[in-house]
Amino acid sequence: SKLTNLGHLEMTWRSRVHFHPLLVRILHKSRLRYYGKPEKKMDMPYQAYFEVADGSGMMSMVLWNSLCPEWYHSMKVGTVLLLAKYAIKSSYPFKTHPTPGDSQMKRFATIEICLNVRDPPTEISIIPEEMVKPEWGLPEVKYRFITRSELDDLPHNHSCDVIGLVTFVGRAERARKREHNEDFWLYRWAHAIDGTSDQPFILELFATSQPDVFERIHPMTYLVCTQMRVMTENPSRTVYLTTSNESQIFITGWHKGQPYTKDAKVKNFIQWTKTQSEADQIKKTVIGGYYPFPRPPDSFLKY
């Protein structure tokens, strides 16, 4: 069928009601958002954002309501989609934006693609990777992996991806989203090493929309965290990483077929793990318990 592209959509969307199909690759994926309220009677008040791209640039795509339980888990980073009968709307101004792995990519920020169950009923097709043709010109997924030795030089709120061997994972803890509110964030602390520094990555991992992975983070697993934010804890200058709205977490058993397996820093990490003795590393691992962070000073005088 006749296809359009994201750049053409941005130029012509106000003058059209129906749009030609789109062929795009998913580059980023947000956590699933529940926006239900007791007074509003909606069957499936869910929403998820994706950043999708073709040869012309990148745009946000929003999956709405009952399409979320049907499609959210099938739409992975790297998945190629053929979309027909979608809607175009002005973009929501307050949403978060991931940091693209390719800084040269053009971003179309004024509009977003809306996938709905009706008005119009969107047609979604997933194209298997082996059927994707180079002439389609779809961009590859790119990452911003850093090593632990590079972390201390990065500015506050910098976005990055990390891979490491888990040496500590804490219990799941809860924090109130807002004061006097019944909603909680669920999170846990983890340490991961990559052989480039004596210090581990300190990771504050909030439960994303991957409960199967979040609950199974154990010592000695290879942990990949994408779209993490650098946090500098003053005055101690302790640096840790926290998840963002677009973070994805993967552990041993989930890595196969993920686009990051081709990344040079990921390959270097795998080579390093082959030089390590599993028995020696297991002796240094810890699981569970209370993890006070940032650490209080050693003495009351310093306090």
TrEMBL record:
It comes from the Eukaryota. One of its GO terms (molecular function) is single-stranded DNA binding. It holds the Pfam family RADX. This is RADX protein. It comes from Hypocryptadius cinnamomeus.
